[in-house]
Amino acid sequence: MSTSTVGIRLDTETQNRLKTLGKSRDRSPHYLMKEAVERYLAIEETIESERQITASRWQQYEVTGQAISHTDMTAWANKLTNSK
After folding, report:
1. Of 49, 73, 78, 82, which one has the fewest beta carbons inside 10 Å?
2. Is this prediction's pTM over 0.85?
3. Residue 17 CB-density burial (10 A; 0-12 exposed, 13-18 middle, 19+ buried)
4. Is residue 60 scored above 80 in pLDDT?
């Protein structure tokens, strides 16, 4: 995987916090920042994926008008719970 350097401006307090946490975890501030970005992206990508699924389902509902009633869904979920 190819990598490149990206700069980020942090205030002094945040930099000091990164250094302190890095020392206590035996990790570099760079490692902590990279880990934070990766976690953030994983969360936000999941949220975006769910948003797109919801939008697609809503669009399908608007076109077809098909929906499952709450009563039917509850009955189906109860069957799953009771079958175990």
Report:
1. 82
2. no
3. middle
4. yes
